[in-house]
């Protein structure tokens, strides 16, 4: 019987995983509360005092913020289920908790523009209002966090291992086109 | 690579989009009243124009479904607009 177990590498240890190269460091971010909110997003932002939503490569500040991922959908970070219950709200929005569905990595340093150039086709000087985009061939949500030069990337949990392997291969991070031994 | 304009996100790579067929190709109404010819035309007949084309596309990252007018010869995009925009002639069944 064909053994394909060697075809896939084990997931990295997300608590310890870290990549670095000249001008850039990448590490996972764990423990974020992530919710999808669909519907009347402007009313939702006002109701929860989240300010303006963050678009592609926009800058999110603090621990509570909202990132626009579609015309009528937000990825809300840092608002707990105790404060905002899952399900339909009569004020005009629906909430789904996706904390376990998305893995987040954070890139820091002056090399993030090079990383974006490798992973996306987005014009960094005209990124647009929506943070959902294709990155390294998969759907991702990408924005700046806390300060210029820091980038957060949310991807489906099942694709996070692929993302890490893709990052390991990048010349920017010292890769030579092949994943590093794990 | 072409850039297509998503009505919400703005210009994005063509690889982020999925073709949704000719604009205005609505599913025939009526159950038994629909003839084989009408159903076949709905399923299989395509405009396939040389020049100006009117199409439905989906932006996969944000889920926006929209109509795009483009030219199949030189690939220039004339305009794109979301459902409800475009003077009510968005080419989509609502």
TrEMBL record, chain A:
It comes from the Bacteria. Gene3D superfamilies: Probable tRNA modification gtpase trme, domain 1. This is Sarcosine oxidase gamma subunit. It comes from Shinella granuli.
UniProtKB/TrEMBL annotation, chain B:
InterPro entries: SoxD, SoxD_sf. One of its GO terms (biological process) is tetrahydrofolate metabolic process. It comes from the Bacteria. One of its GO terms (molecular function) is sarcosine oxidase activity. This is Sarcosine oxidase subunit delta. It comes from Shinella granuli.
